[in-house]
From TrEMBL:
One of its GO terms (cellular component) is membrane. Belongs to the fatty acyl-CoA reductase family. This is Fatty acyl-CoA reductase. It holds the Pfam family NAD_binding_4.
């Protein structure tokens, strides 16, 4: 048996953020490939659903469909830990605390608020204070061998070069935590923009604070930091193109794929630093093993990005999105997909308001005439919000140091590399982007992939607009006929 699997065999993992995009993928892979004893998942109650209901819902995700066949009883290894990261002691019951203390060997901390617009207080509470609670608790786990903290490659995003080491924030995390106590929400928000500068948003600011706090408070814990860039659909596992949210790049693919959005602000010649979610999960699991084995006295940091090792550009998205969606349209389409990029703000605004918004107002008017509920202006607003978030990534480019992850891959056995592939150089971007679009249609939008439903969507597409003559994807090469 290979070394990584050997390590996990019979051991238990405590995973936070399991209901999230990345956490779900880590959970699936641990259960499918690691022969773990148990995976304890911290799930909070949300939107009127109990933690138990949410755990059951999580395991119904299509992501687990392979497991349902290969390990039909896998759900018995997923143990619910009802909690709330922002409560004292993470809201754990005494009994759960005891169980975790006696059984957990690896902690994977993925829970976070990834909302760029989060209020400063909320972002600090989830991304910094909750990590402190987690560290305090991890120190009481008698069998703990490794702790993987999920950060982001953008902790240092106000600088063009991002080294693989902890960046000193301009403010002490404890001082920021104290500010939360001493200020009302209004007072805090009034200072927030000034306080977080030069970080562009509360997300990257608090993730940076969290790393510093981790370094200060980890004590003797065997910890490592994993920093992915923008996480996209899966490249290979458990199937290609799996994605179930509309965050960042995915949301903009939907907006431009439906034809609701025709322009994105940014430079298409810049690198799109995307990394597949399954590669991230494999790397995290491998780091859980290596952190336990190596017991480094330093806190190892791993940037996990594609820009340096196997770059893809936004221009590739602009090519492959229409190539796919003009052949295999989304049912929610409003015509053909014709995305472009603008580096000129005025040109961009003319596109999104002068062209797209006017078209959506007109289409909503037609819907009203037909007695249907108008929805396109609302969808356009949502798409614009998504592309507004992505603007930060489409109009900047970073140089992420990638030595540590490259050296780490070299250390892994050939067998482990096959089972836990995270070598970004092996991603073939053209194939990846086609499967990404397919995954958006099938898993995120939950649309049927039958030929008849694709034909129906094509009719809708043609009803809305004339086929553009010279645009990628208008040649029938994907689904002829
Ligand atoms: N997605 C990316 O492009 C990206 C890029 C770089 C780094 N990362 C990092 O990767 C990690 C996972 O991100 P993701 O994309 O999977 O985000 P996500 O889909 O938004 O998932 C976030 C997870 O955190 C949980 N969580 C948030 N607040 C919580 C609380 N108060 N108590 C308990 N659980 C809470 C969420 O639970 P609920 O379901 O209950 O909300 C969810 O399971 C984060 O640390 C993020 O910073 C993500």
């Amino acid at each position: 048996m290979a070394t990584i699997q050997d390590f996990y065999s019979g051991r238990s993992v405590f995973l936070t953020g399991a209901s999230g995009f990345l956490g779900k993928q880590v959970l699936e892979k641990l259960l499918r490939s690691c022969n773990v004893k148990n995976v304890y998942v911290l799930v909070r109650p949300k939107k009127g659903k109990t933690s138990q209901e949410r755990k059951e819902e999580l395991l119904k995700s299509k992501l687990f469909s392979t497991l349902k066949i290969t390990k039909p009883h896998f759900s018995s290894q997923v143990i619910l830990i009802a909690g709330e990261m922002t409560s004292p002691g993470m809201g754990l019951s005494e009994e759960d605390e005891r169980t975790l203390r006696e059984d957990v060997s690896v902690v994977i901390h993925s829970a976070a608020s990834v909302n760029f617009m989060e209020k400063l207080r909320d972002a600090v509470v989830v991304n910094v204070i909750a990590l402190r609670e987690m560290l305090k608790f991890a120190k009481t786990l008698t069998k703990l061998e490794s702790f993987v903290h999920i950060s982001t490659a953008y902790v240092n995003c106000h600088k063009q070069f991002s080294p693989e080491c902890i960046v000193k924030p301009l403010h002490d995390p404890h001082a920021i935590i104290a500010m939360l106590k001493n200020n009302t929400d209004e007072a805090l928000e009034a200072q927030a923009q000034q306080l977080i500068r030069p970080w562009p948003n509360t997300y990257t600011f608090t993730k940076c604070l969290a790393e510093w706090l981790l370094q200060e408070e980890m004590g003797n814990l065997p910890v490592c930091i994993f920093r992915p860039s923008i996480i996209g659909a899966s490249a290979e596992e458990p199937f290609r193109g799996w994605v179930d949210n509309f965050n960042a790049a995915t949301g903009v693919c939907v907006g431009t794929g439906t034809g609701i959005l025709t322009n994105i602000y940014g430079d298409q010649n810049m690198k799109a630093d995307i990394v597949p979610v399954d590669y991230c999960a494999n790397a995290i699991i491998a780091l859980g093993w290596s952190t336990a084995i190596e017991r480094s006295s330093k806190l190892p940091v791993f940037n996990f990005t594609s820009g340096q090792l196997n770059p893809v550009k936004w221009a590739d998205f602009v090519y492959w999105i229409p190539t796919y969606f003009n052949q295999c349209p989304l049912e929610a389409c409003t015509g053909y997909s014709t995305p472009s990029f603008s580096t000129n703000r005025l040109r961009y605004l003319l596109y999104v308001y002068g062209k797209d918004r006017v078209k959506m107002i007109f289409l909503d008017f037609l819907l009203r005439l037909k007695g249907k509920t108008p929805r396109l202006v609302r969808l356009h607003q949502r798409a614009l919000k998504g592309s507004g978030v992505l603007e930060f990534f489409t109009s900047n480019e970073w140089n992420f140091e990638s030595e540590n992850i490259a050296a780490f891959i070299e250390k892994i056995s050939a067998e482990d590399r096959m089972t836990f592939n995270f070598d970004i150089k092996t991603v073939k971007w053209a194939e990846y982007l086609i499967h990404y679009c397919e995954g958006i249609k099938e898993y995120a939008m939950k649309e049927s992939m039958s030929l008849s439903s694709i034909e129906r969507a094509r009719k809708t597409q043609n009803r809305f607009a004339q086929q553009p003559r010279s645009y990628p994807g208008t040649d029938d090469f994907l689904y002829p006929g």
